[in-house]
Known about the structure:
By secondary structure, the protein is mainly alpha-helical. It has helices at 9-22, 28-45, 47-68, 78-89, 101-112, 117-122, 129-150, 155-171. The protein starts with 8 loop residues before the first helix and ends with a helix.
Amino acid sequence: MTSDGVVVDEAIRAAWASYRVLDKRTSAEDRQEAQQQVEAAVDAYGREEVSRGTVFLVGVLTGYLIAEQSGSQDRLDPLSDLIPAVIRQLPTFETADPAQVPMATGVLMAAAMGMDTVVWRDQFGQIPPQEALVHGFVLWLLADLFDSMAGRPGVIDQLMRETFDSMAAEQS
Length: 172
């Protein structure tokens, strides 16, 4: 783990793959491939780094949601609409530990305020597994909200995978 907010690319990709594992639209074959990608990244870089990747993506999706609406009359206010809408949905996940909600809320607040979510979260030390799980649920909820607002299920998954593919092409 670095202290400057830098997250290993493969950990970010694995964090997105964990979203794909949760998403019901993911085929069984793709879900298995995503699970293997998560396991490989955890083996190579550690659970902590993949958790930091999830925190990074929470910041990215929150930024997308805020930017996408910046001229719209019906825009979600990050502090009074977006964050409460996401946090209120966390109890729908049976394994979401309510004790982890304050930190997840803090990450969302940092993102809404334009802060680097990884740097903000890193100041509190390592991410315990129960908290990492809640960040994964927040990521899924943000992706679902993005798809709902776009009116096209799966649009954020397509956008993220195209982004990862273009990053891989640039690195080759």
